[in-house]
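Section handout, structural biology tutorial.
Before the tutorial, make sure you can parse a SMILES string by hand: atoms, branches in parentheses, ring closures as digits. In the record below the ligand is flavin-adenine dinucleotide, and the chain has 406 residues. In the tutorial you will relate the predicted structure tokens back to the input. Do not try to memorize them.
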Amino acid sequence: MKKVVIVGAGFAGLHIFYKLRHLIGKKIDITVIDVRSHSLLKPSLPEVAFEGAPISHSLIELRHTIESKGAAFIEDSVINIDAKNNSLTLKNSDKVEYDYIFLTLGAVKNYDAIKGFREFGYSVCDDTQAQRLYNRIKTFQGGKIVTGAAKSTWGTRVDAPPLKAPCEGPIGEVMFMFDHYLGRDKGFKRSKDYTIDVFTPGEVFFEDVGDKPRNAIAQFMQKQDMTLHNNKLLIEIGKDFIAFEDGTKMECDLAIIIPPYTAPKVLLDSKLGDEKGFIPTDTQMRHLDFANVFAAGDITALAQPKLGHVAIIQGGIAAATLLKELGENIEIPAHNLEVFCIMNMGGNEAALIASDVLYGGSKDIVSYSPISKMMKWGFDNYLYYNKGHMPPDLALEATDKLVDIL
Ligand SMILES: Cc1cc2nc3c(=O)[nH]c(=O)nc-3n(C[C@H](O)[C@H](O)[C@H](O)COP(=O)(O)OP(=O)(O)OC[C@H]3O[C@@H](n4cnc5c(N)ncnc54)[C@H](O)[C@@H]3O)c2cc1C
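Predicted structure of the complex:
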């Protein structure tokens, strides 16, 4: 029996687990390790912050989910990985040995890289921040709102699009959902009671998609009196301002940001990452230097942008690569990435974006309708009630067809 360890039970880790589980007890033992007791469904966090959705609906309990399928679960932090000796160390000092390891630790949201964030800044990127923002919004009496992503930097070992922001979809949700809440629920008037300024570190906002989605978003922003500022590298948030590297400042009563994404310390310490700590893999998600180490999701250098959809594609590839190595009759999917997300815009409104322009393709779709909102609702609920299990391939293929029709 081969020992398989999965470190990190987020989108990628759970997807890999479900793809491998039919071999548990036959060819493999699986141990899943996560520092959290519950996996966090981050796409639902804007609903927590702006609609008061219960955080429990974004959390998947891990121990029972994993152990009921015949695998082991360890709730602890991995602090070192000795890839030369196939062994890792937990914070409690225990060592775990493996034949194969999947590294699916996600990226660190580095709030502390932004001066003043802890005192004056807000975010939607994790459960603590989303709930903190919800409490702030409840008492917001109007003023100047500024939102945007800080610049992230990536290594150079693999060939991936060097995006300046990890993913700007959540910023789209922040600006549209907040506008909806203030206008429709609180009866505030745009320009008079509040303004929304949006900044991006990129040359353009939504640099990971093509012109169609980008123009549609620009039109919505114009209609809703939002102002966009390009090429802005966030450095500081103060009590009533937000400051950028070019020396400019904006007045700001409420700053909601995506912080820079960085690699977990364990990967830097274990020398498994590229110069920025993100894991370099080939397109079958195998580590470039260690044949029994696989990775998928936000932590890989190839994942640009950092998106759940990309984590799922890569998780499927990584699992298939190991299954094939274990003698299973399976085809390894091609590493064909695309941007696919449904941006909640508040109320019944949502925009579905599907684009592979970033990777040289010609798909560039945006669909704005209540159907998009229903799809998001259906997908988020499916994941929650099925403990992070993706819908069956048949349903995903039907979704692709629906997207083409839209
Ligand atoms: C607000 C927000 C909204 C988003 N909306 C969308 C969306 O609508 N659609 C979409 O496709 N994507 C969306 N994303 C992106 C998506 O959530 C991520 O791309 C996805 O979660 C990445 O999955 P992952 O498995 O790589 O990492 P994660 O989901 O971050 O999981 C990593 C896991 O590893 C664990 N871990 C980390 N370090 C250690 C350690 N040292 N030891 C043990 N365990 C560890 C963590 O606890 C975590 O459970 C959104 C992101 C945010 C922040």
